[in-house]
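Revision sheet: structure tokens.
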Amino acid sequence: MLLHEDRLFPVEEVARKVARSLYAHVRNLPIVSPHGHTQAGWFASNEPFPDPATLLVQPDHYIFRMLYSQGVSMDDLAIGQPVVKDPRKVWRLFASHYYLFRGTPTRIWLDYAFQEQFGLKERLSEKNADLYFDTISEKLRTPEFRPRALYESFNIEVLSTTESPLDPLTAHQQIRASGWKARIIPAFRPDPVVDPEFKGFAGLIAKLGEQNGEDTAKWSGYLNALAKARARFKAMGSTSTDHGHPTAQTADLPPAEAAALYNKVITGKANAQEQELFRAQMLTEMARMSVEDGLVMQIHPGSVRNHNKFVYEKYGRDMGADIPGPTNFVQALRPLLDRFGNEKNLTIILFMLDESTISRELAPLAGHYPCLRLGPPWWFHDSPEGMMRFREQATETAGFYNTVGFNDDTRAFLSIPARHDVARRVDCAFLGRLVAEHRLDEDEAHEVAHELTYGLVKKAYRL
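Predicted:
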């Protein structure tokens, strides 16, 4: 087998025994995936995935960023191309470099998919690349491997996609109209119309106004258009918003100052400092709207996006060249929290890419403010080590119940079960250690394991 049954469990025997027991009770619980980047169109059309390269390599920036770091051309991997013209060639190239993923979470996720979904038991290499390709291709042609069938076989209860406010949500409407009972919902991601650095920002603002019947040349019309867009998402089942700002900075300007700042932004006269102030103001405006409409607010700050200028100019956004940066939460969030931090109808889920903030800033904040919860380790830290560090640093101040379980944040559909399995194993390992150290009774550990796997995510995201 590619994977050992005791993977990620403690080496110490007593803790390992408890971890096994806990895991046995949570391993088959339904998957709740409240934040990710899979495509609703897959489930609307329910067409077969075309080939292994298109399914597993092309959408997964964890894969192609590692290959690119070792000199593999993104053109040879067909990254950014609408169709993979020679998928077997791409797959062979990937297989010949599979050794690069030794010791990484990507290796665990891929091996899980190869073993559990395709029945493959030999480690992928250049020698068996064609066997892998043919085995996976054959299965992809069967009804059991169509998107909807996979959704059901993965035991997914809820799956949230992430969409722009300008998206017509046609795919979500088609899923509903088809009568299929799966719960696939959109999350409201307003970055294209709140971040002045977004390419074509003024035109996107105008389009937002046209779609919602508002004059977005005015501050009031802009806010009304955003509120209407949120209502449209909520009508399609959305329970959350998502904000991928460069920083966690917030602001609470008087209305007249906010309107003047907006005018400078949409006319292209705002400097970099004013653009950051506008983003900061918009986080507070989004919090105000969440108090009103009940949508849970996710803040994903701290990524220096599109760091590689060459890659960005040739292949576009979100092509694996995003790098974590230091983030301030205590002072940055204060304007927003001064206004809304004690609101009972507001939930803000904070994510970090700067691990130094977990015990120093995030856990104390979430351990005090009623509106704050801690999101799970994200992106560069959704690894076994990152998850364990998070539990060790957050639990002592925020406890378990100010966290929100796990979300997979993936574009790679087949990695969803693997990612959730890793999270469940790591949480059980952490709890097993607490029991072995007589810091937690075993019956309590079973309750916590269930909450970390299933209960907390449904409560936090209002699912």
